[in-house]
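Task 17 of the worksheet. Students: predict the tertiary structure of the chain below and write it out as structure tokens. Keep your answer in the requested format; marks are given for formatting as well as content.
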Amino acid sequence: MSAETYLNHPTFGLLYRVCELEHDCELFTTLYAQRLFFLVRSGPGGLEFESLTRAEARLMVENRLRVLRRNHQTPDYNRLQAVHQRTFFNLLC
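Model answer:
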């Protein structure tokens, strides 16, 4: 079973889910370049897309990491920490 989630943006095409930030609020990025980030909220009118800079997206993930650490949600924290490293500190080998 794959935990990967994809979403089709009307302008930017296929987006890849980075993580869930809150209930009904997730962070997505463009599939290949991972340079454009979107906050996607699901509401009664459907999906709402808000574009974010890379710095804003990173800050949101880091805030979520702090909440998870504060609440002692270690497995979720460890998973998100790995996503954070992979997304924002991906080094060229």
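Marker's comment: The beta strands are 6-9, 13-22, 25-30, 37-43, 46-52. The longest helix spans residues 54-70.
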